[in-house]
Design a protein that fits this description.
Blueprint (H helix, E strand, L loop, with lengths): L36 E7 L16 H4 L8 H15 L8 E8 L7 H15 L1 E11 L6 H10 L3 E7 L3 H6 L8 H11 L4 E8 L6 H14 L3 E6 L7 H7 L8 H17 L3 E4 L2 E3 L7 H7 L3 E5 L4 E4 L2 E5 L3 H9 L5 E6 L2 H12 L6 E2 L5 H12 L5 H5 L2 E2 L3 H5 L1 H8 L2
Parallel strand pairs: 1-2, 1-9, 2-3, 3-4, 4-5, 5-6
Antiparallel strand pairs: 6-8, 7-8, 10-11, 11-12, 13-14
Helix pairs in contact: 2-3, 2-11, 3-4, 6-7, 7-9
Length: 414
């Protein structure tokens, strides 16, 4: 997705213009962080592009002029300074969570990741128990770099494992070896990280049941306290989609994906990891990803970086995607925001139901209207909602309900 986007201030068909100074409506800043406040930092650099990836990421060849890893931390800090001005009269509480994602954040020097975190602390302050996460590709970290990140204040790391099968990794265009992810997880523990996550992808063409079973075995053996597992989604415009259109690879099977999910639930539950969101398992309550919970429960966050999304007080906006355009706007003293939307009551309700229903804690039935409650009754009768949870006034998905979560949402918010 390289290329320069529209000139500032910019607008998308489904969004309104973001003011050049990035200012927000007064109604959005009356209670910033009332449900919690986090910061997301997007690092758009990758050493190579995986065949399934449609994220806002760029290899060196795709970047073109005007953007570089070397100056990136300073550019992010410039947006942070703008954010401080925007929220100056209504500062948020200390930051509960920081999540550095990408891309491959650990392609930046550990010192740059440390400077970004220090800038957030200096701007708004970090809560005493703040969760600070960075994503990483397994081949992009070393025992030494992990120790530097931990010393800088990073408490949690999320490693992209995807699979333990060399054949599956090859189809996904992953560059690390089959055993590198679990080795990196052990190195992160040795470096002092409090929480370590491994990401899995299931349902890749050619993946056998025994391949996924081996992946789960390696994850469990690594002793991590958090696992994320997602079904492969084939996005238009990716190399993987092109290979499928040419008939080189079969399209993913929903039935296979369901079998893989059931296998993940069985193996992870037996190892002492409990689901707390449809695609996420944790060993303890403390191991749950608090940053993602912040998203799922409607809290506020500021997203720094090209393509990053933010949400404050019912206003959601997103930045221009290309790193060059992003840097140019900030250098000119302007917001990098491309467009924004103010969520209506109905939109906010739909998102609340959709996200909270995916949590193990479920959704209060009281937030549903008469049509939604009728839908909940049908889901209960179909075995998609837990009877004990329902009796306690909550819509909580059963295991079968997790497999059909999107259908349940459509029944609760028709």
């Amino acid at each position: 997705m390289p290329g320069t986007l529209v000139a500032m201030p910019g607008v998308l068909p489904d969004g309104e213009t973001v003011p050049v100074d990035g200012s927000l409506p007064a109604t959005a800043t009356t209670a910033v962080g009332a449900r919690g406040f986090g910061v997301y930092v997007h690092v758009p650099f990758c050493a190579s592009r995986c065949g399934y990836c449609d994220f806002n990421t760029y290899t060196a060849a795709e970047l073109g002029g005007g953007a570089s890893r070397e100056g990136y931390a300073d550019t992010v800090l410039a947006e942070l300074a703008l954010a401080a001005r925007v929220l100056g009269d209504s500062p948020p509480p200390p930051v509960d969570t920081v999540f550095v994602g990408g891309g491959t954040p650990t392609l930046l020097p550990a010192d740059d990741l440390a400077r970004i975190l220090d800038g957030i602390d200096r701007t708004w302050g970090l809560a005493a128990d703040a969760e600070v996460t960075t994503e990483a590709n397994p081949e992009s970290v070393t025992p030494e770099s992990l120790k530097l990140l931990r010393a800088a204040g990073y408490t949690r790391i999320s490693l992209g494992m995807q699979s333990a099968s060399p054949g599956v990794l090859a189809i996904l265009d992953r560059k690390h070896s089959a055993g590198r992810a679990t080795a990196a997880a052990l190195e992160a523990r040795d470096a002092g990280f409090e929480h370590v996550n491994l990401d899995l992808i299931y349902g890749t063409p050619g993946e056998r049941a025994e391949d996924f079973a081996a992946s789960l075995e390696q994850v469990v053996a690594a002793g991590v306290d958090h696992v994320s597992a997602y079904a492969l989604i084939v996005e238009d415009g990716t190399r993987l989609a092109a290979r499928m259109k040419r008939g080189e690879l079969a399209y993913p099977s929903d039935d296979v994906a369901a079998d893989r999910y059931l296998a993940a639930e069985a193996a992870l539950d037996a190892a002492g990891l409990s689901w707390y969101e449809v695609s996420n398992w944790a060993r303890t309550d403390e191991a749950r990803c608090r940053h993602n919970l912040l998203y799922w429960t409607g809290a506020d966050w500021w997203g720094l970086g090209p393509g990053a999304h933010s949400h404050v007080g019912g206003v959601r906006w997103w930045n221009v995607k290309h790193p060059t355009t992003y840097a140019q706007r900030l250098a000119a003293g302007a917001s990098p925001g491309l467009a924004r939307e103010v969520l209506t009551v109905d939109e906010a309700h739909m998102e609340d139901v959709m996200l909270r229903l995916r949590l193990a804690s479920g959704l209060p039935l009281a937030v549903l209207d008469a049509t939604g409650r009728a839908g909940a009754e049908r889901a209960l009768a179909d075995g998609l909602l837990d009877a004990d949870g329902y009796a306690a006034g909550r819509a909580v998905l059963t295991l079968r309900g997790r497999l059909l979560a999107d259908a349940v949402v459509r029944d609760l918010v028709p």
